[in-house]
Amino acid sequence: MSQYKQNKPNNRRKRNFILIIILEILLILILFFGYRWYITNRNDNKSDPAKQSEQGEDKEDSKDNEEGKSQDDTSSNEPTLTPEEQEAAAEQERLKKEEADRQELIAKADRLALRYDYDAAIELLKSYKTEQGGYEIYPVLTDAISRLETEKGTLVNLGGSYHSVTEINHIFFHTLIVDNAKAFDGDSMSKGYNMYMATIPEFNKILQKLYEDGYVLVNMSDLTEKVTLEDGSSKYVEKEILLRPGKKPIVISQDDVSYYDYMKEDGFANRIILTEEGKITCTMVQDDGSVVTGSFDMVPLIDDFVEEHPDFSYKGAKGLIALTGYEGVLGYRTNDPSSPTYEEDKKEAMRVAEAMKAEGWEFASHSWGHRNLREISLSHLKTDTQRWLDEVAPIIGPTDILVFPFGVDFETTVGTYSSDKYQYLKSKGFNVFCGVYSKPWMHIKKDYVRMTRRSIDGQAFLEFPHRLTDLFDPKTIIDPDRPGKDW
User: Fold this and answer.
1) For labelling alongside 222, which of 85, 288, 350, 432 has CA 20 to 30 A away?
2) Which residues, in sequence order, are CB contacts of 312 under 8 Å at separation 6+?
3) Tens-digit pLDDT profile for residues 60-80
4) Is the dihedral of CA 168, 169, 172, 178 positive or negative?
5) pLDDT tens for each residue of 366-403
6) Is 95 helix (H, G, I), strand (E, B) or coil?
């Protein structure tokens, strides 16, 4: 018992001592983890701009900015450039930009050269100038000019494929069929579409075939020019068309690009428009009344093809568009002054025509009313021609080309024009006349030019395929949706 009493205080002291040790350890842990939390939180605030902003809300903005700049400057390891070093760096950037500009200029010149416009390509490079001097001091430019001049020297007239522009093929289309099911649905219009129209797949195949065979688009204005003689008179002469050896110039045209009312529900485009970016394209009305936009006819299709294959076009040439006027032009009803959209339609049609000419398209008269010029009287011809000059010419601009409706010439002669109809048309500014024939034929007379064209349509594919075999095999072109000969 006495022994128990003696040990009891000792045990109490031991427990107190252990408790003190435990409390001290807990205090140390609390201090340690508290310190860790403080350090971590401070570092997070320094690395987080949002937290810095929150913590600095009560400080003046200008003071914060100054302190921030000071801290950035202090913490940055980047050396401060001297004024001389800054000037050298700026000069280096200027030189890099100028070099990039020169390379871009050469690329533009090469694209012009692809289109056989070597003179424009060389002139573009020679126009380069900086504060240091002109193109002559830049070897990259003089080397490019020398290369282009060498390439230009290899070009030959008409690609060496023809002896004269009179041998050049001129082919033409009508409005292209977009929706075969609607055009070839068996109604009263189907037979006409089958005879006189081509489908978009057929057209695209023809373009590809012509390109693969070395053909190059040229415009009517590339074929001839009027020159003044020593005695003061003038006459038409052939122009040079310098192409790479083996290339062959060809003219493509399209008639009746007005999108007539009778075609509305038969699977054709209804208008040529400009997109917001200024690109030429077409619209087409769907069954539900909605309007879709796309390359639904010859103009945008050739534009697209030349964009991808610039060497398919001679100096940007595209083709000839022959217009009537009795239902307006290009899908705009510019023939009806009583229409509430008449002025708007005229304005938009003019805008489209200007864009087309800028893209390499040319225009021709196809008469106002699409009448047989051989059968109508001289009086009727005068009325029709004057109406075309009054209504259509102001929209598309002047042209001296007349494409005969139905391909029928106003004279039967293969010699020289002499009729009153010719004299009248000549007086109204028409000097180039285009008919239809099964092969290339062209007369270049002193006062006018006469050229024939070949139609590309179902009638040519199905009834007269032998007329096209020098250009392509119609069997490889015909759309499987096209009906057989049904006329």
Assistant:
1) 350
2) 210, 211, 215, 216, 217, 305, 306
3) 444 445 544 445 444 456 678
4) negative
5) 999 999 999 999 999 999 999 999 999 999 999 999 99
6) helix
Both tokens of 272, joined, read 């040529």
| DSSP 8-class letter at 262 | G
Tokens, residue 398: 């002047």
Instruction: List Cβ<8 Å contacts ≥24 apart for 376-385.
Output: 378/420, 378/421, 378/424, 381/410, 381/421, 381/424, 381/425, 382/424, 385/424, 385/425, 385/428
CB environment 382-410: b (16+ within 10 A), e (fewer):
bebbebbbebbbebbeebbbbbbbebebb
The pTM assigned to this predicted structure is 0.81
Mean local confidence (pLDDT), 320-328: 98
pLDDT attached to residue 41: 63
Better-predicted residue by pLDDT, 10 or 191: 191
CA distance 412 to 409: 7
Q: How far apart are CA 5 and CA 3, in angstroms?
A: 5
How far apart CA 182 and CA 176 sit, in angstroms, is 13
Mean pLDDT, the chain, integer = 90
- Residue 229 to residue 160: CA distance in whole angstroms: 28
